[in-house]
């Protein structure tokens, strides 16, 4: 049994934990929920020795624990999958799975032994990768699975998962949940932090809800809660502006000559085959598919990151897309990515600087002193609008909670007022309340005529925000869902089978 008692932690004036108790019992899955910035990750870091609390006690089976590092925690049988991925990009898969072991025993000694331990864990998670593949070549979802595998190979008694599924497709999430259930049956204690409330409620036994650094609901039985009640507890007296689903009544007629972002017979070897796609101004089009089906490649092509082998991309104003991400930005194309560590933010720079970053690349305004003052003011507006939890816009982005970092990515691109907005799992790690606000902002952008393309691993998100969802299978478009066909269940079914709903008009 792992117990935390009266844990406190402040960063300067920011109180992240104001006296938190948590008890996690063996053979149970304990959900730890709360809005962005509530203190979940800070508590997790204290439980695994990554953060030294200002006060409070940890106990394992009644014995007081003094953890000086996450390595200490692993030795005690406490393993963590952190929210921000922490793999070594230039090392291969196997070396990442056994980071500490390897440095202790030397790299060549027991690679074979390590591989023998790694294989079953990777298979269980459905992660089909070569053990000598450098991690930097893996897509975000595979890197996230690898983080989970790294915790599992230590054979923990307590496993702490901080938003482990934020980049995973439904199928991978299901597989992880099977693993979690098996661990529970073996008596492992699991702490599970997530904003996917329905998913987590399906797998957990107990729920603790945090709010503003405190426990709002301690260890309630999951059977006593619903998603609605959890949301109410998470947001407290803040009004829950939960998004109403778009009403998808009948297909919307689209004028074929209206300005649109067009992909014309785009082929990318091994990824896309002669794809034709037009996304008219003012529409939100979703891209769905299983990994490798081509939907993400479309986003990369439209962002100028991936060059087509044949075909071309034409912007709404008729100009062909320039190559390279900078070229695309200068043409008003923005990409909001859930992979924020790679594309999204400068962690060591203040919020205001991040928010102003794109504007200054695209427009080259100078007069830096004046600009900084104005950008601070603009940044303050975004902070208020998106509810970014921070003491000031001078705070470094790296000091924000994961979900609040993702909101900064949004602020940055909203500030640039793009005419084409490409969204790649845009709300990764964002809580329900802020999601609703972001969906509203996206609708505002489409009312002003922006083209929006959303790729998401969450079919519910696609159904909620898109006017149309284009489903990819094996590098081609296999269905376009609108109107009454546009719901999460149909999306999931079509992306897995490649077969459009039978009654769809051809
Ligand atoms: N290193 C740090 N320096 C300054 N403030 C920090 C630091 N780490 C966390 N905080 C602050 O502590 C508070 C709690 O953050 P924490 O990361 O625990 O939130 P969270 O519940 O995990 O949120 P999310 O759902 O967005 O991941 C936030 O206000 C955050 O800005
Ligand atoms: Mg967090």
Automatic annotation (TrEMBL):
TM regions (residue ranges): none
UniProt-listed PANTHER family: CARBOHYDRATE TRANSPORT ATP-BINDING PROTEIN MG119-RELATED, GALACTOFURANOSE TRANSPORTER ATP-BINDING PROTEIN YTFR
Matching PROSITE patterns: ABC_TRANSPORTER_1, ABC_TRANSPORTER_2
CDD domains named among the record's database cross-references: ABC_Carb_Monos_I, ABC_Carb_Monos_II
Keyword terms, alphabetized: ATP-binding, Nucleotide-binding, Repeat, Transport
InterPro entries: AAA+_ATPase (IPR003593), ABC_carbohydrate_import_ATPase (IPR050107), ABC_transporter-like_ATP-bd (IPR003439), ABC_transporter-like_CS (IPR017871), P-loop_NTPase (IPR027417)
Protein name: Ribose transport system ATP-binding protein
GO MF term (any one): ATP hydrolysis activity
SUPFAM superfamilies: P-loop containing nucleoside triphosphate hydrolases
Organism lineage string: Bacteria, Bacillati, Actinomycetota, Actinomycetes, Geodermatophilales
Organism: Geodermatophilus ruber
Signal peptide bounds: none
Top-rank taxon, per record: Bacteria
Domain ABC transporter: 2-237, 261-499
